[in-house]
Amino acid sequence: MSVEDHIQRAMEEGKFKNLQDQGRPLKVDDNAFEDPEWRLANRMLAGSGYSLPWVEKRKEIESDLEKARADLKRTWNWRQGAQVRGVSPEYAEAEWRRAQNRFRETLEELNKRILTYNLQAPSVEFHLLHLKFDREIARLTQPPQSPGG
Fold this sequence. Notes:
By secondary structure, the chain is an all-alpha fold. It is built from five helices and no strands. The chain has one domain (3-141).
């Protein structure tokens, strides 16, 4: 049984009801990797809307990756229903290939940014993994698995 199955079962049994602070945002202000001598300074900066450059880079990379994935998914979904809408299979495949090429170029650019980011991150725990085109395509094109399967 997977972790998700255990969580789902516990939810169904009501084990997450009436928890302390239920419905309130989690307080995750403390950073276990933060130098205690810098904690006050970092809190003051964060309170003023500033963030560490490597944190901002990570957010930008993750945002750009999600946008690229969404664009590719949109083309995949269009391709899947193209024939029903009367679009020629050749045209649909050509559009899919173009979308894959754009996505591959985006991944190459993101991987360069990830390399730079990883060099700036203070610890390997914050590193991002190298993006692999084949793995991304497989994740997108595989049908969703049914629960429990």
